[in-house]
Amino acid sequence: MALSQQDIVKIANLSRLEMQPDEGEKMQLQINSFFEIVEQMRAVDTKGIEPLAHPTHAMPESVLAHLQLRLRADVASEPNNREANQRSAPAVERGLFLVPKVIE
């Protein structure tokens, strides 16, 4: 699938983007090169290959032992101050802020 210059102009218009003519040509080349990569990936026969749930699942245990996930612990870092935060609200019901209806 390759995009023409008219396609690029139409996409830019729909996206509300203002492009100079030379920018449109450059964008067309970049997008079409991306589509070429996608077509190459589609051409690969993947029958019988199970998808990975996570990229590290294919790594040997010896490698995984050296990896450290850089995620912080999932713990509450601040106390629950709901009541104090809602004191200045004009209307509260069962712990929820009440707001005027804006959509009918």
Q: What topology emerges from the helices and strands here?
A:
Elements: H1 5-14, H2 21-42, H3 61-64, H4 82-86, E1 92-93, E2 96-97
Antiparallel strand pairs: 1-2
What's the short version?
With 104 residues, the chain is mostly helical. It is built from 4 helices and 2 strands; from the N terminus they run ααααββ.
Report the average pLDDT across residues.
Answer: 87
Tell how many strands the DSSP assignment holds. Answer: 2
| N to C succession of SSEs | HHHHEE
How far apart are the first and last residues' alpha carbons, in Å? Answer: 44 Å
Count of helical segments? 4
Looking at the structure, what is the overall shape?
Answer: flat
CATH architecture of one domain: Orthogonal Bundle
* Proportion of residues in β-strands: under 5%
For the sheet with most strands, the description reads: 2 strands, antiparallel
In CATH, the topology of one domain is named: Histone, subunit A
Residue share in helix: 25-40%
**Global structural class:** mainly alpha
Compute the CA-based radius of gyration: 26 Å
Order of strands across the widest beta sheet? 1-2
Q: Regarding CATH, which class of one domain?
A: Mainly Alpha
Low-pLDDT sequence parts: none
Keywords:
2 strands, Histone, subunit A, 104 residues, two-stranded antiparallel sheet, 4 helices, mainly alpha, flat, 39% helix
Care to describe what's here?
- The chain is mainly α.
- The protein has a domain at 1-40: Orthogonal Bundle (Histone, subunit A).
- 39% of the residues lie in helices and 4% in strands.
- It contains 4 helices and 2 strands, in the order H-H-H-H-E-E.
- It has helices spanning 5-14, 21-42, 61-64, 82-86, and strands at residues 92-93, 96-97.
- Strands 1-2 form a two-stranded antiparallel sheet.
- Strand 1 and strand 2 (96-97) form a beta hairpin.
- The radius of gyration is 26 Å and the shape is flat.
- The mean pLDDT is 87.
